Amino acid sequence: MKQKLRALFSPILTIFESGTEEFVYKSSHRAILIFIGCMFSGMAVAVFFVAQGKDPGYYLPVLIFGGIGFISFLIGFLGTDRAVAKIWGTR
Question: CA 90: distance to chain centroid?
């Protein structure tokens, strides 16, 4: 199942998994990345339900927070150690 999901999201994952430079990976980085994904996804849901209105401009924070949450979950659960280290900027 994980390989099928990795194949489905490979265009996004290859951006973060590319490179040959050295990196520093800690398992806590992956756990914190998943936690950050939960926080941003929760904020997206909260903004969606709290700030409902007729103005479509309120969807912008929902898209931004939801996108950050989605990428965090994607890299946290499916990404390689290099992708997690690249998100943290560790070299």
Answer: 17
Nearest to 30 by CA among 83, 66, 70: 83
Locus of tokens 């050295």: 22
CB atoms within 10 A of CB 78: 17
**Tens-of-pLDDT digits for all 91 residues of the chain?**
989 999 999 999 999 988 888 888 888 999 999 999 999 999 999 999 988 777 888 889 999 999 999 999 999 999 999 999 998 886 5
Q: What is the Cα 8 distance to its own chain's centre?
A: 15
Domain assignments of the chain as residue spans, ordered by start: 27-91
Q: Tell which residue, 25, 12, 21, 37, has the closest CA to residue 84.
A: 25
Query: Rounded to two decimals, what is the model's pTM?
Result: 0.86
Q: What end-to-end distance do the CA atoms of the chain give, in Å?
A: 30
